[in-house]
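Researcher: I'd like a structural prediction for the single chain below. Treat it as a standalone chain; there are no partners to consider.
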Amino acid sequence: MNTKRIVLIILIVLIGLVTHACSQQTSTASTDKLDKLVLVGPPGPMSIPLAYLVVNNKLAEVAEEVELIVFENPDQLAVFIADESADFITMPSNSAAIFYNRGFDIQLLDISSWNALFGVTNDPSISTLGDAAQRRIVVPFQGGMPDLLFQYIA
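Model: Treating it as a single chain, here is the predicted structure.
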């Protein structure tokens, strides 16, 4: 499955989920809007659907103001969960499980994508992980799931 198709599927699923979640929140008084709706996502493709919703004003019927915040690291994500300052957060499923098991009041809406593991290089001589041996490889979130998964695979 190519990247554009994956992003499109994620976009469709998240638009439906956010719209559904927001309509559930306002179903008691359909004419009332939230003052502000805060969406939080990680850097990368998982935040594209959220950005689409904000840029195209797709949640105007739900909230007067919609803000998208892209968290930069797992510690910043933990702050949003601990202080309950976000209304909707897109995060890796393992992170959601960790926060839930630590007693945070979060609810899983959907697992929107699988197989979102990619290696990217600008060196045409590298086509397998073995080709990258003895080279510097950058992996995000040291000690987090991307790092642990890469270490396992490597």
